[in-house]
Amino acid sequence: MEHVVIVGASAAGSTTAQTLRREGFTGALTVVGEEPHLPYDRPPLSKQVLLGAWAPDRTTFGPSTAYADQGIDLRLNARAERLDLASRRVDLATGEQVHYDRLVIATGVQPVRLRQGHELEGVYMLRTLDDAVALREALLHAASVVVVGAGFLGSETAAAARQLGCEVTMVDTAPFPMALQLGAELGSMIAQLHTSNGVRVVGGSKVTRLCGTGSVEAVELEDGTSLKADVVLIAVGSKPATAWLDGSGLPCGDGVLCDAAPDNVYAAGDVARWRSRRFDQDLRLEHRFNATEQAVAVARRILGKDQPFDPVPYFWTDQYDAKIQVYGVIPPDARVVMTQGNPAERKFVAHYLSGGRLSAVLGWNMPRETRQARSLLTAI
Amino acid sequence: MDVKIDQEGCVAAGQCVLAAPDVFDQRDEDGVAVLLGKPSSDQYDATREAALLCPARAIHLSE
Predict the structure, then answer these.
(1) Mapped to the 3 state alphabet, what secondary structure does A280-295 carry?
(2) What is each CA distance from A315 to A182, A224, A310, in whole angstroms?
(3) Using the 8-state DSSP alphabet, how is residue A349 labeled?
(4) Start and end of every Reductase C-terminal domain (chain A) (predicted)?
């Protein structure tokens, strides 16, 4: 009997397993996950869970019986430590060895740490459910919060902390929040959104040191400024979780290089890097929808239902009352053209143009219109 | 086929409308998914695809 082993039990891993079963895979199916929790959804962690709108267990994918009912051997608390391609074997930290016929790598990413300061109490990172629960508890008792890094996670956490009543400062090396993801023009609008909600936004500034004895007390910036803090979130990006593949011979380079992997090895989600023909570039996307789309594509490829994988990427962020949605890929040099609505009313659709072609559409509180504008990207 | 949408969990991605435009739509004001009607049997595949792709797993089918 064919054995598919999926390493990683988050959105990509669990979706691959469930799609395989739903679409007729009858072989053995094992899902290996590092965390103690049943597979759960991450986007709500920095939104509903931090705000307390959802109890933590509401993020769980389906009931605990769903895996056994579908004949999925779900092994939690089991970190993969090593891959042996020649023997088709994954070694787990528990000492177990799992043999596979086909392997799906869905180990996601790990947050990047600062060189100093993580040992101080009050310094947090946010990736897991446990992280979110601990950070929420800290925010409920915090007066001054400093968020280091103003990407998705930093911006959403700054919004949540502010809504919980904390004094919040958000610092980034880029001039504006989310400038890397959305460009400077939209980044400046995100900065205004935070400023108007009472967050102090510090752009173009590098953190040099976290100060404190035992507990964090302040965050020191390059220009000598000291920001008082009793809670600090470090959200300075993440790296593909591929350390366990070192020495295996599997081609990696900022992620698993899907197009160079052996025929029986696949990757899905944040960890996967592949060539996009549509956008004529290598992509590795840390977006929730990408995890689902790639998981479904991998499951179907395993089932022999080959469809070319060339999606229009989609991501969103929710901050305060703003729902920002993007279809496509935003190149750093893109020009922004407003096409619908009115930025002053914080309700609009914008096009990103690069090299004479439309490369992304962004909507700010206009979900229906944004989805409709997506067809402009597939028409090319 | 019975379709239920968890509208509180819906993130307004609109992927269900892209997958099954005759079954789902989005509310004008906030983009939250709504059901246009009970799917007919020729819409079952598209409806399953919509449930599978939903990034909030907010569409629940019972068949």
Answers:
(1) CEEECCCCHHHHHHHH
(2) 11, 36, 16
(3) E
(4) 314-378
Q: Angle between the A179-196 and A152-163 helix axes, to the nearest 10 degrees?
A: 10
Of residues B31, B37, B39, the one with CA closest to residue B15: B31
> Residue A183's closest CA among A304, A375, A45, A333?
A333
Environment class of residue A361 by beta-carbon count within 10 Å: exposed (0-12), middle (13-18) or buried (19+)? buried
A374 touching chain B per CB within 8 A: yes
Decide: helix, strand or coil at residue A194: helix
Chain mean pLDDT for chain A: 97
**Contact (Cβ atoms closer than 8 angstroms) between residue A42 and residue A16:** no
Q: Which two tokens stand for residue A253?
A: 């380079």
Is the Cβ pair B18, A370 closer than 8 Å?
Answer: no
pLDDT class of A380 with cuts at 50, 70, 90: low
A147's tokens: 């968020």
Adjacent-strand bridge partners of A121: A215
Residue of A371, A374, A376, A378 to mutate, testing the B interface (most B Cβ within 10 Å of its Cβ)? A371
Residues of A in contact with B56 (CB under 8 A): 41, 43
**Residue pointed to by tokens 């919040």:** A168
pTM of the model: 0.96
**A-chain residues near B55 (CB < 8 A):** 43, 288-289, 292, 314
A residues 317..356 contacting B (CB < 8 A): 318, 323, 325
- Residues A31-67 pLDDT 10s: 999 999 999 999 999 999 999 999 999 999 988 899 9
Sheet strand arrangement including A265-267:
A72-75, A28-32, A3-7, A102-105, A265-267
CB atoms within 10 A of CB A380: 8
Residue whose pair of structure tokens reads 């769903």 in the numeric block: A66
Chain A residue with Cα closest to B53: A292
Which residues of A183-309 form beta strands (DSSP E)?
A: 200-202, 207-211, 218-221, 226-228, 231-234, 238-240, 256-257, 265-267, 272-276, 281-283
Provide the shortest C-alpha distance from residue A368 to chain B (in Å): 6
For residue B13, list chain A residues with Cβ-Cβ distance below 8 A.
289, 314, 316, 325, 367, 371
For residue A107, what are the contacts with CB-CB under 8 A and spacing of at least 6? A7, A8, A34, A80, A240, A241, A242, A244, A271
**CA-based nearest residue in chain B for residue A62:** B57
Give the torsion sign (CA, A243, A121, A164, B9): positive
